[in-house]
């Protein structure tokens, strides 16, 4: 854990922002071209037009760098809506996932994760990203709990994982388009379930 | 549409079975090595130890052959349980998907679909497989309808797609193991939904 940055450190961080974005974008481009195993920090630095020590200072290992690059197009782009109802929040999140899932960066990331799905480093990175993703809807879950919207005993994180998985599966594997009707039907299924009212325990 | 095969044709089909299995297995092996675009029917025939006309006779195009190979490890392996309740059927299907999803053949198939995700032939094959997959749970849905288990207006196929997607996502992207508790929680969410009873319209 770091102390709160001083004013001059904060200025340095702000000055550093475009460099960070440039290095992470260069990392994603290199990954798309050569994959994870063959990725070299030197090549990322060259592509980003920075000194390789600039990269090493902030991301000491290749794994750190690639994790940060993946986070920049997943965790760092997530939305945390507050529409006043779980249904409203889920619709906003579902739309966001559907838009993101078709982005070239995310398609590239997925291609890489499956192409090198036996690489232990990459598996660890994917797991850590998904742990962070799982923490993201916490404010949405807490707001729904505060409104008394959640059934007792429900694993609320599973709603969000099922939502994301079903959208990604449809776009990525079934290769079928997604419209508002599909998203609304999916949210409704996760909210009220498939069973007829008189068949519930 | 073909006429019903004659007795001699049926015997020929039965005699042909091991050849079919050999050619489809050889197709999957070739795909894992060279991918879809570079696949040549001649190489599949050589690997399977058959004449290439044997392959062409049954599967006139590369797309037909690859579709049949994919079907052999997806559609042709599906289960259609009849346990007497939708919950019971879903649990059986969920266990089956979880087991299949970790098989080397299915991991290879997924790797290929993402590696060549811009190949129009492969996209068409994936779409056709998923259309067939969607028809598979029809007997399970009809049995649930006959028992009055489904809520009115529900898109029942979405239950099965969400089930499969969430299991595949967890194993393939989140890279986390699946146990009975996870499967039971997921089936329950899809059956009864996340909303508290007094919050349902």
TrEMBL record, chains A, B:
**Residues within the DNA-binding region(s):** 40-59
Keyword Disulfide bond tagged: no
InterPro entries in alphabetical order: Homeodomain-like_sf (IPR009057), HTH-type_TetR-like_transc_reg (IPR050109), HTH_TetR (IPR001647), Tet_transcr_reg_TetR-rel_C_sf (IPR036271), TetR_C (IPR011075)
> Where does the HTH tetR-type domain start and stop, copy by copy?
17-77
Q: Which domain of life is it from?
A: Bacteria
Pfam families, sorted: TetR_C_11, TetR_N
Query: Which keywords appear in this protein's UniProt record, sorted alphabetically?
Result: DNA-binding, Transcription, Transcription regulation
Output the PANTHER family linked to this UniProt entry. HTH-TYPE TRANSCRIPTIONAL REGULATOR RUTR, TETR-FAMILY TRANSCRIPTIONAL REGULATOR
Name of this protein: TetR/AcrR family transcriptional regulator
Q: What is this organism's lineage?
A: Bacteria, Pseudomonadati, Myxococcota, Polyangia, Polyangiales
């Amino acid at each position: 854990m770091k102390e709160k940055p001083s004013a001059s450190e904060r200025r340095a961080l702000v000055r550093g922002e475009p460099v960070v974005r440039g290095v992470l974008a260069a990392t994603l481009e290199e990954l798309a071209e050569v994959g994870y195993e063959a990725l070299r920090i030197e090549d990322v630095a060259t592509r980003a037009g920075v000194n390789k020590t600039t990269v090493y200072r902030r991301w000491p290992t290749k794994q750190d760098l690639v994790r940060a690059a993946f986070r920049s197009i997943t965790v760092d782009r997530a939305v945390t809506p507050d529409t006043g109802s779980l249904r409203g929040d889920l619709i906003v999140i579902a739309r966001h996932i559907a838009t993101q899932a078709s982005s070239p960066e995310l398609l590239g990331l997925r291609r890489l994760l499956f192409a090198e799905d036996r690489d232990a480093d990459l598996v660890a990175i994917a797991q850590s990203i998904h742990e962070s993703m799982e923490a993201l809807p916490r404010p949405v879950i807490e707001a729904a709990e505060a409104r008394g919207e959640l059934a007792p005993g429900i694993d609320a994180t599973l709603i969000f994982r099922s939502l994301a998985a079903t959208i990604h599966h449809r776009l990525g594997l079934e290769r079928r388009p997604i419209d508002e009707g599909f998203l609304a039907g999916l949210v409704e299924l996760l909210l009220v379930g498939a069973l007829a009212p008189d068949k519930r325990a």
